[in-house]
Structure formats: C-alpha cells, structure tokens
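Let us practice reading a record.
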Amino acid sequence: MQRKIWEALEGLFDFRRLLLELECAAAESGDERIRVGEQDMTVREYAVKRLEEIRPRLEASSSGAVGPLRLIATFEPSAGRVRSPYELPMDLAPVQVLGWAPVDLPADREFFTRGSSVELWSVTERRKIWTGVHPGGWLGVTYQDLKGGAESGVVLKEVFVDSPAEAAGLKVGDVVLQMNGRLVGADSFDALLADAGAGGKARLLTRRGRQSRAVDVTLGSWPAEMRPTIVGAAFTRGYQIAVVWEDAVAAFDAATGRPAWTFRAIRDRFGIARLGAVDGRLFIHEHFRGVDRARSPFRLLSNQMQQERGLLSEKEAYSRLLCLNDDTGEVRWARSFAFDAGAAANHSVEIYADGASDALALLSKAYRANVAVWELQLVAGESGQLWKRILLGNGVTAYVVEERRGILFTVDLSNTRTLRGMKLWGSDAEKGAVVLEVPLQGKYMEQSLHGCGLQARGDWLAVVLPPVQPPHARSGAPAGANGKIVVFSVKTGKEHAVVPLAEGRALPTGRATLVNFDADDVLYVYSIPASKPVPAAGERRAYLAAYRLGDGEDSCALLWESIAPFVAPGSGFLAEIVPAGGSVLLHAQRASLPRDGSERYVAAFYDEGAGGYLQVVVDDVTVGREGPEGAGNSVIVQRGRVCLQTARGLQVYGDREP
C-alpha cells in the first residue's frame, strides 16, 4: 500500500508530500523489508535512496527561478485614502504563504492582500481569479460598554455610511439590548455578529431614549477596506489556503476561493499574533492586545472599563498556542504561556515545526519582575504532549533556527559567551540534545562586546561579531577591530573559516545580521569602508560580497564584490539579504544611495551569474501596513518570485517574461 501511495504522489509531481511520506516511513517502518525490482531491501534503505533522488528535484521546483530576476508585472496603486482608524490601505500587498503550494496551482498564480481581503491573481495576465473576505457579518457600527458595565447592552457610537445599520435606521446613541433573542454585552456582540455571518438575519432589540423597538437587519459581507488586519496565510493539506486575521481564521479552496471552514474562538482583548504550519496542522498564538484594545476593532472600551480591567488578573495573564486541524478548523489541543500582565507587550512565542517527525519547538520570551525569561518547549505536534522544557535564562543575546536540520543556535551573555546548538527534532533521544557548544569569550568575542549576530543554513553557521568601536583602517589595527565573521561547520561542530573581509572593509556596528547563505554554499556579507565608519551624507558607501565555502585552502573564497546601498546603523529597522533564484536581494527600510544623503526604503537586485552585477535598484519601496507586531511585509520572496510594495504599485520580479 505504501509503495502505491508513493508512486501516486510521484505521478502527481507532488514531491513535497512524497518527501514527507518517505521520511515518515523510514522513521516508523524502517526495518521492514520490501522487494524493489530484483533487490530485497529495508524500507529505510529504499527511502534513503529515493530521498537522494527527490531532494534535488524538490529544491529545483521550490526555487522556481533559475536565472536573474526581472520585472514581470506591475499592479497600479489604489487611489483610495485611509480616512479613519478603522480603515486599511487598499493597495495590493504581498503575503507570505506558509506550507506547500497545491500541485495543481498554476505557476503564475500569486496571493496578495487588499485591505482585510485576500486575492488570487494570475501574474502573467494581471487578472484577478477570486477574492476571499473576512468571515464576519458586517453591521457597520462602532459600539461601547454602557456606563459602569453593569447593565447588559451596548451603545452605538458611530454608524457608517451605506452600512446595513444605516439602512435599518439605527442611529448614534441607540442601545442594543438583544440580538435574535439573546442578551447582548460588549464582550459578546462581535461574536454574535460573526456567528450570523454575511447575509445573516439579525433582529435587534434596541432602546432609543425611553422607547424600545425591534429592528430587523440583514448583515453584509465584510468590506475589504475595514479592519481587522491579516496576520498571514498557510496552505493546508486539503489544497486550501487558510487566511489568518487578528480575530479569526478562515480556509478557502485555493483554486476557486470557495469558503471551507472558519475558526473564531479568540478571547476578548486578545488577538492572533503569529502563525505556524505543517502538513495537516495550523498553529496560532493568541496574544494580549493591551489595555485599550478589544478583540473587535469596532469596540471602544470606556475609561471606566479600562481602569477596572486595565491589567489582566493573575488567572487571565497567559497567552495560548492553539493547534487547529487544517482540514476542519477544529482545535486539537492548546498550551498556555504565563507572563507578567504589566509587561504583556514584550511577551512573544515563536513557532518552529517539522512535519516529518511530528515535532514542534516553541521559543517563548516573557518578562517576570522586569527580567526577560527565555524558554524552549519541545512538543508533539499531533497531541501537544510536552517532551522537554529547557530554561534558557535571561542572557540570550542572539539566536537563529536552522529548520532543515532542526537546530536552535543561541549565544548567551555568560562569562564564557557560549555558542550552543540544541536539537529541536529528530529521534526522541536527540530532542533538546546539545549538538554544538563553543566558548566564544577570548578567542572570538571580546569582553566589551555585548551583542553578536547568527545566521544558519544547511551545513553552515555564521557568527557575526561587529566592531566594539567604530571600525578604522589604520595599519597595525588589532585583530577584529573591523569586526569578523566566523563560519562553523554544523556537521563537525568546529570552526571552518574566518571570512577574509576585503582590504579596507569593515562590518557595520548595530547591524549584526546582514549576512546570509544560499543553498549552494555561498555566504553573502554586507560591509562598509573601514576608513569612514560614520561618513557624511553624500560620502556614504557600502558593499555586498559573495564567498564560496569549500575545503582546504578554498575554505572561504571571495567570488565577487559589488557596490550596495548604505544601510542606516541601528537595529530598529528592517534590513536583510535574501537569495532569490539567480539573483540576490538586499533590501533595507532605511538606506541611501551613493552621492545621495536622503534615507528611504531601498531594494537592490544582484545577478549571480554576472559576477554580482547590480541589475536593479528600487528606491521607492513603501513600508507595509501596520499589523499586530508593527509594520507589515513590503518584500516577499516565494515560489521563485519577489514581490515589492512600492509607491508606483505592487511590483513582481521573476525570471520569466509575462
């Protein structure tokens, strides 16, 4: 039976799911023997052989792009303006879709967001295929708790023009007491509307002055220009796309947009802040939204309510990680994470998962008594059973997860500044095991250096050590005066090479993560002139270099170096290097071009095949819309394409002409 499933998946070119099935078979039935042609072998031996054949095909199909990227489509910006705090920008925006794209999704399809809706487009034809809207029922009002909160009901504070509420004759100051025979409270009104859904009938018992009356309303579809914000999206095992808003999750058929299921069980004053996904499961983190924000963006908390419920009680001060069945939206299990209510804004949970081994790693940070406490929980993805809890303490200064191998790398601020690698998944015996441990103090890291950067991919880990003081180019400068990057082999756990920065180059201070690897053992490094670490606005220079990682004398050989935008120092603004098919992309939220002192969001494309030739510079990238964790994505790299949100509209880059 297993062989038939594998053959069927290969016939469908579904290499991702075939890869998953083979890895599961090797883990669960590895010692069973099967007949393959003239050979007799174990399932494990067969799986290993097939995995070696499939992985290159999978990587080729995943990257999509094979040559340098070029502009293949531009979508005009929306002429509409945001007129109120309840509205969202209506420009098309890129959205990162987690998981494996359905095999029958055409290669030119791309998902974007527009306001609170998600849209599927044909990029080559610039044609919209379908639109999916927020699943709630739209009444078109803002509302508030009645004074004191003792009486049931809500008072309407605003009635939107052309809304179902206006059509039904509702006015500002009306009090809604019941909906379809159920008492209405501020904590429940939005949930009742959501359950009714678009097109639902609602009979409202209202009070205006001293008179009560019943009002019949037909709820509308959620307008795309209205909040809440989309947090993210993920492909499901049933070839759907699950879209995650701050207050709900809804799945749509990826090809047609037909609604499949909806999940809304989010606590009041909480919202969804983060999404994770593996084959068959979605993971959402429900986070406290603050003293002045409710679950619904249209509920206004009264001053008295904010004072009475301004801080969570000890029993309420926990966030939840919910595991959903991605085929039905049903909750499989939940885990809670306690935090100090007064420091809720600094609480976070990051989600890393490996579907092949049913492993889930949850990295949480919570403030207790004004001290950051880092904790790693290793959990069974299917059942939620806790395998291991590891307290990382309060001294984590840098971390990165290499998801293919399933290793969390951290650097702490102990006396030895230890670099550790901990196994997140694999066999049960390996979970949480330390696979790399290197003291950085002395040989690599100066005592006065309090921060560093980490980047990992595949077999390689880079430790980025910026200069303690502004770099300089004088002769006889001490080692490390201009910063250094040490590359470790994940296979051996030992130092592989120190990156030979070009003459007169230095790493920037305050930008310890502007390095990255690609799948071909190439390391990209951003640097600045050592002679002018703090140049005048018109004299700013920077460089992007590529190094090939190999063996022997060629352990780290310079391939090319090219001029780059100057990235403003400081860690508060986004800046990263991203391999993208035959190109590499450097984008930064605050950057300037040579001989130009003005700072703006810049994206630069480099042609790998032409020795790092600077192909394209886009200097009008716009900051993405506000989300639950700040600014949204303006740059998305997926399926071999790069999507940029710019002042001229959404631009899509790929390696194929439209």
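A brief commentary: Residues 132 and 242 are 10 Å apart (CA to CA).
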